[in-house]
């Protein structure tokens, strides 16, 4: 049991507003009235990896992001807030689908969570989607990449907020190919995520008029890529694509930089997080292009939020942190608009909503498949960091429509 | 043909590194009979310490190559004095479990302190770039790591077979009673040998730092390959570990080149075949005598 309840100042503020409502005896349709909330409170469940490979890019700091959202919601609505008592409960799914499944059940049933957020790791993400559907409770996924969340496994209560593998492929493979990187060799880790990424990238490269010479599967995990890199250089491709993540990606890039391909062949990376650049050092990744869902130093609005985040965590936010904030905030706004935390009514106000906030630009919660479409960015790693965490140069904004394409036809919204 | 030579060289370069990494495991098993499962974690500690030294104290690669093994030797001595020693008389399984538990503690401790996404480390100056001959090329660092590993392995081998200390250590493990009868304090040698094995793991970690991801988990998968190396070479055999290190490096490189999907399986197929034909491994146990 790693779950714990957090109230602190939020509870004090809530009690104060309750007292106000009671004394005044008033409260219009948009105010107080705890009776409109199930169990007299809104409970947000944060279910993610708090100890493994995704700990740094989402992990415990996602809770800080959610707390910032609660703070902003309280400040915005004051004593008119419908969600006057808000709790955050957290759990570690350890990247295991069965643990995610039982933790989600526990959150919905025992801890009375009204919504579950984050859930990186595709297998865990899909397990929670099934729970959300069965329990008829909300679920906004942020950390996982699988397109199945808005495809075959989509349902009325599940939303996918930040990115998916198809978006990464369109952003990175499509753009690089169109810019002249027409011949590719791809190395991918041989498990579900890697195979999925290899397929999406191959499809996008060929779709944009390029060709993929060889797709090479590497064992997962692996730490000796020297020979894979030699193979990937055969046939003189213009681009070598690495679909690895985490430690495998770092191994691959380090060894790529020591190979003769460095400087001659462009390295494109399927999925990369700012935490990866931070751990390897900006010079090792210099020039590498990848698709980012959000970057903290993109504009003033992002920077301001990142500064608040840094005050609390002493680190800069990843896109997953910003997306957790955005998802929590929009959920609370939806509760406010609906005047209740009843799941069906909240879903009704979320569907089709157009959003512009710190995370979502030209965002829309697409009704057809519950993909939250928004502008994403083609980023290039800088050759040196002007300040710590300032690693990315945004080369191009990829408009939402281009990045997300049509709604997933595999989704029947059952 | 040039491709084949390329793969062979890459295999040999990786093999040298495997040999050095497995050496400490072989020394500790050969002398103490302890299957040290924490070898991978000690390898990880070696890499993490060198990254921390670089980031916080600006201690570079060459100094780390000397300092980290010394620190790890101290760690090994503590480990032996406080923990391993008390279980030596029991079934080897107890120490195996002890070191397994220690691995979990070390990995989690590093995760808590340094997170999970890894630490940065750069290639030391002068060792970047590649050497190209015709169409064959190899990174300078890979060549360095391989040569350095072979030198260390040969040095350790010579020290154990040609020096007086080596002789005492081997006598103490082969026939402790008779060695004692000759007036030699056998127990005195157990701790330094264990510390030395751990220092070798740390040294391999330093060598890995410029070219591999430095994460808390970096040893967790690596230890499996190392066990394969040690089993193929013959448990406890130092020459065996070196030969098997190169063999595994080559087999892995050819596997990746000609059957990438099976690259990691081939190592264990090789291990199974060796054990079937020679259950005591290529160089058996007599090699340490």
Name the descriptors:
heterodimer; A: about 425 residues; alpha/beta; 2 domains; 6-stranded mixed β-sheet; globular; B: ABC transporter involved in vitamin B12 uptake, BtuC; two-stranded antiparallel sheet; about 75% helix; about 5% strand
List the helices and strands and how they pair.
The complex is a heterodimer of chains A (414) and B (289).
Chain A: E1 5-6, H1 8-24, E2 42-48, H2 61-77, E3 86-92, H3 97-109, E4 115-118, H4 122-135, E5 138-141, E6 158-160, H5 165-178, E7 183-189, H6 192-207, E8 211-218, H7 226-233, E9 239-242, H8 246-257, E10 266-269, H9 274-280, H10 282-285, E11 289-292, H11 300-313, H12 319-338, H13 343-350, E12 354-355, E13 363-365, E14 372-373, E15 376-381, E16 392-398, H14 400-404
Parallel strand pairs in A: 2-3, 2-4, 4-5, 5-6, 7-8, 7-9, 9-10
Antiparallel strand pairs in A: 1-3, 11-15, 12-13, 13-14, 15-16
Helix pairs in contact in A: 2-11, 2-12, 3-4, 5-6, 12-13
Chain B: H1 2-32, H2 39-57, H3 61-87, H4 92-114, E1 130-133, E2 136-139, H5 140-162, H6 164-174, H7 176-181, H8 187-208, H9 218-233, H10 238-258, H11 263-277
Antiparallel strand pairs in B: 1-2
Helix pairs in contact in B: 1-5, 1-8, 1-9, 1-10, 2-3, 2-4, 2-8, 2-9, 3-8, 5-6, 9-10, 9-11, 10-11
Would you give the CATH topology of chain B? ABC transporter involved in vitamin B12 uptake, BtuC
Distance between the termini of chain A: 33 Å
Main sheet characteristics of chain A: 6 strands, mixed
Instruction: State the secondary-structure class of chain B.
Output: mainly alpha
Q: Count of DSSP helices of chain A?
A: 14
Helix content of chain B: over 70%
* Strand segment tally of chain A: 16
What is the helix/strand order of chain B? Answer: HHHHEEHHHHHHH
């Amino acid at each position: 049991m790693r779950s714990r309840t957090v109230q602190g100042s939020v509870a004090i503020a809530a009690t104060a507003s309750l007292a106000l409502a009671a004394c005044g005896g008033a409260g219009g349709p948009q105010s107080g009235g705890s009776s409109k909330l199930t169990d007299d409170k809104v409970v947000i469940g944060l279910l993610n990896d708090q100890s493994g490979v995704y700990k740094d890019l989402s992990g415990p700091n996602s809770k800080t992001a959610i707390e910032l959202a609660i703070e902003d919601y309280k400040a915005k609505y004051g004593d008119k807030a419908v969600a006057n008592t808000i709790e955050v409960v957290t759990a570690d799914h350890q990247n295991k689908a069965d643990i995610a499944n039982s933790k989600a059940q526990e959150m919905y049933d025992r801890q009375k969570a009204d919504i579950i957020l984050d859930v990186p790791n595709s297998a865990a993400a899909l397990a929670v989607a099934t729970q959300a559907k069965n329990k008829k409770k909300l679920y906004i996924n942020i950390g996982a990449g699988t397109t199945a969340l808005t495809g075959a496994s989509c349902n009325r209560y599940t939303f996918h907020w930040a990115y998916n593998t198809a978006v990464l492929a369109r952003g990175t493979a499509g753009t690089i190919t169109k810019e002249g990187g027409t011949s590719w060799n791809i190395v991918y880790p041989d498990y579900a995520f890697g195979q999925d990424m290899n397929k999406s990238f191959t499809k996008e490269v060929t779709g944009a008029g390029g060709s993929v010479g060889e797709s090479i599967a590497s064992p997962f995990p692996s730490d000796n890529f020297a020979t894979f890199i030699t193979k990937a250089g055969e046939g003189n491709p213009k681009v070598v694509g690495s679909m690895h993540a985490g430690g495998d990606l770092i191994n691959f890039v380090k060894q790529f930089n020591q190979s003769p391909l460095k400087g001659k062949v462009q390295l494109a990376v399927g999925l990369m997080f700012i935490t990866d650049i931070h751990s390897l050092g900006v010079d090792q990744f210099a020039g590498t292009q990848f698709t980012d869902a959000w970057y903290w130093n993109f504009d003033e609005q992002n920077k301001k939020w990142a500064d608040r985040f840094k005050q609390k965590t002493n680190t800069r936010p990843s896109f997953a942190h910003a997306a957790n904030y955005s998802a929590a905030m929009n959920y609370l706004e939806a509760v406010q608009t609906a005047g209740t935390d009843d799941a069906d009514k909240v879903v009704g106000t979320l569907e089709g909503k157009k959003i512009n906030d710190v995370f979502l630009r030209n965002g829309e919660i697409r009704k057809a498949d519950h993909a939250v479409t928004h502008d994403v960015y083609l980023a290039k790693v800088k050759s040196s960091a002007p300040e710590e965490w300032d690693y990315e140069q945004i080369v191009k904004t990829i408009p939402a429509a281009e990045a997300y394409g049509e709604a997933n036809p595999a989704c029947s919204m059952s | 043909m040039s491709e084949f030579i390329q793969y062979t060289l890459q295999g040999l370069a990786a093999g040298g590194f495997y040999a050095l990494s497995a050496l400490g495991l072989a020394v500790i098993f050969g002398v103490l009979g302890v299957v040290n499962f924490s070898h991978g974690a000690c390898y990880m500690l070696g890499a993490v310490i060198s990254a921390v030294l670089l980031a916080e104290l600006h201690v570079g690669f060459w100094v780390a190559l000397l300092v980290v093994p010394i620190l790890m030797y101290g760690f090994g001595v503590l480990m032996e004095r406080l923990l391993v020693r008390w279980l030596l008389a029991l079934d080897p399984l107890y120490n195996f479990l002890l070191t397994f538990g220690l691995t979990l503690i070390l990995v989690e401790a590093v995760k808590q302190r340094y997170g999970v996404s890894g630490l940065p480390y750069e290639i030391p100056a002068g060792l970047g770039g590649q050497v190209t001959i015709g169409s064959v090329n190899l990174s300078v660092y890979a060549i360095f790591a391989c040569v350095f590993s072979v030198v260390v392995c040969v040095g350790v081998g010579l020290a154990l077979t040609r020096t007086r200390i080596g002789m005492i250590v081997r006598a103490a493990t082969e026939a402790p009673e008779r060695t004692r009868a000759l007036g030699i304090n056998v127990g005195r040698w157990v701790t330094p040998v264990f510390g030395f094995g751990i220092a070798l793991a740390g040294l391999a970690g330093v060598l890995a730092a410029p070219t591999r991801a430095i994460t808390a988990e970096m040893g967790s998968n690596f230890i499996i390959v190392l066990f394969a190396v040690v089993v193929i070479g013959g448990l406890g055999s130092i020459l065996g570990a070196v030969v098997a290190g190169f063999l595994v490096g080559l087999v892995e490189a050819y596997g990746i080149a000609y059957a990438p999907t099976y690259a990691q399986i081939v190592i264990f197929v090789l291990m199974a075949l060796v054990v079937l034909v020679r259950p005591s491994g290529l160089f058996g146990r007599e090699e340490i005598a």
